[in-house]
Amino acid sequence: MTTFSRAGLVVRSNDASVADTLIEVIACLKALDIEPVPGISTQGLVGDLATHDLDEIGRRCDVAIVIGGDGTLLDTARRLVDHQVPIVGVNRGRLGFLVDVSPDDGMDALRAILTGDFHAESRALVKASLVRDGAVLHSSYALNDAVIRVRDLLRLMDFDIVIDGVLVTHQRADGLIVATPSGSTAYSLSNGGPIVGPTIDALLLQPICPHMLSSRPLLVDGNSRIEIRLKDDERASAQLVCDGQVYIDAQLGDTIVVERLPRALPMLHPADYDYHRILREKLNWA
Phi/psi at 74 (nearest 5 deg)? Predict the structure, then answer.
C-alpha cells in the first residue's frame, strides 16, 4: 500500500548524469500509482512532462525526492521546510551525509520508503539575519551552517559573540561558523569541530582559525539567540554565507542574528538507517 499520492522530483541542476536514475525513479512512482511532479531542475530530462517550481511542489506534493548530493538537498530543504514536505535523498553525489538512498540496489530502498517502511527524522534549520542600525536587511535559512567571514580578503576580523543577550566572548579570527547538528559534519568538521548527533538539541559555534589559544568550539542550547556583532574599528566588507550557497554582503559594524527555526525539516530514510554506521562508512573509520 502506498503512503503518498504525489512526489516532487528535484535533481542536481545541469547534470545529465542523473537522467538514468531520474527515469528509474519515475518508473518506480508510476508502478506504485504515485503521481510524479518534476521540478524545474529536471527540464530536458523528463520528456514531455510539465515541470514545476519548488513552491508548487511544496503546495501539491506530500513527499519530495531529491536526486543528487548533499548540496542539492540543502538547497531543496531551505525552500521546502516551510511547506513541511518530507524529503527523501537519492545519492548521486560523492561524500554525503544527508542523501542516503543508494540507486545501486535498483529502486528497492525507495520503493520500501514510499510504501511506508521508513525511518522518519526531523532536522533542525537556522535562520540567519543581517541587522544594520536596528533593521533586518536580509535573511536566509540554513540546514548546515551560517558562516561569517571577511569578504575577498584573507585577514582577521573582530567580533563579539552574544548569547541570549549576554556577552560570552570577544574573538579575533578568520570568521565564525554557526552550525546545526546536521552541519557539524560539514565545514565545521573540516575546521576541527566536533561531530554532533543530528537529534541533539544544540547549536555549534566554531571559530575559524582563531587568534587565541583559549578559543574553543562552543555547544549551546538549540533555543539560543546568537548575535555576532562585527566590530567597526575598521570598516571593511564582510559576508554571511548560508550552506555555502547563499551569499549576503555585510560590513563590519553589522550584527548577524542566528536562531533555530521553529519548524524542523522532515526527512525519510531507509528503515535500517543508522547515523553511526554512516559516520563509519563516510569517514572510513575502522
Answer: -60, -45
Q: Which domains does the chain have, with CATH numbers?
A: 6-124+264-282 (3.40.50.10330), 126-260 (2.60.200.30)
Q: What share of the chain in percent tops pLDDT 70? A: 96
DSSP bridge partners of 121: 267
CB-side neighbour CA atoms (13 Å) of 252:
17
pLDDT digits (tens, 9 = 90+) for 96-111: 789 989 887 779 999 9
| Cβ-based burial of 131 (10 A; exposed 0-12, middle 13-18, buried ≥19) | middle
As annotated, the active-site residues are 70
Helix residue spans in the chain (DSSP H): 19-31, 54-60, 70-80, 108-114, 187-190, 275-282
3 state SS of 170: strand
Tell me the pLDDT tens digit for each residue of 264-282.
999 999 999 999 998 998 8
Strand order in the sheet with 202-208: 218-221, 202-208, 175-179, 145-150, 237-242, 246-251
Mean pLDDT of 44-68: 94
Give the pTM. Answer: 0.94
User: Are 128 and 242 contacting, i.e. CB atoms less than 8 angstroms apart?
Assistant: yes
| Nearest residue to 43 via CA among 19, 26, 63, 79 | 19
Cell 518508473 appears where? 27
- φ and ψ of 160, to 5 deg: -100, 145
Distance between CA atoms of 113 and 149, rounded to whole angstroms? 40
